[in-house]
Amino acid sequence: MNKNVVIFASGTGSNAANLVDLYKDRSDINVVGICSNKQEAKVLDMAKANNIDTLVFSKAELEAEGKVDQFMAEKGADCIVLAGFLLRFPARLVARFPNRILNLHPALLPKFGGKGMYGMNVHRAVKEASEPLSGMTIHYVNENYDEGAIIRQESVELNPDDTAEEIAGKVLELEHKWFAPTIEQILKT
Predict the structure, then answer these.
(1) Contact yes or no for 100/80 (Cβ under 8 A)
(2) What separation in angstroms does the CA of 41 have from each of 27, 36, 84, 103, 117?
(3) Number of helices (H), then strands (E), in the chain
(4) How many CB atoms lie within 10 A of CB 88?
(5) So which residues are the catalytic ones?
(6) Are 23 and 34 spatial neighbours (Cβ–Cβ below 8 Å)?
(7) What is the DSSP secondary-structure string of 54-107?
(8) How far is CA 155 from each of CA 103, 109, 115, 139, 180, rounded to the nearest angstrom?
(9) What are the residue ranges in the chain where pLDDT is below 50?
(10) Which residues, other chains included, contact 118 with Cβ-Cβ below 8 Å and sequence gap of 6+?
(11) Predicted local confidence at residue 63, as pLDDT
């Protein structure tokens, strides 16, 4: 199979680190690049510690053809994974990688999705809505936030007294369990 994955992340990158750890001893799936729109993102430190090439870009550089496209071409990207990436992905890259850009969202879409619904914002909204379940959604990326076709959803029961932080922890466990095998499944198609 031998597929090259490029990860986009804007923050700490716990899901990116999980993917790197799971794939590092494999010959068929390679994390060949980690990209971020934030110079201070901790995910970049993790990438450097694992000898993975990085790219930092501005929102304008993402939206304009050039720097990001060149990095994708140089890395021979077969799949792009958004793991805590907060910018909307440009239509030209969505068109260039049809059904090869996956996003991980920390809720059961279509609820709690869209612009501004990321990280603790999502978990606080789930708590405020007194939802009995939360979970994670892995979906294809299209031109709109969190509206691409759903690939996999996994849920977890919530207790009425769970805090937003406890909800986040439960969802993170699901993300770490299901993200890598779902990516692998997509890469085999």
Answers:
(1) yes
(2) 28, 7, 11, 18, 19
(3) 7, 7
(4) 17
(5) 105
(6) no
(7) EEE--HHHHHSSSHHHHHHHHHT-SEEEESS--SPPPHHHHHHSTT-EEEEESS
(8) 17, 11, 22, 15, 17
(9) none
(10) 84, 86, 106
(11) 95
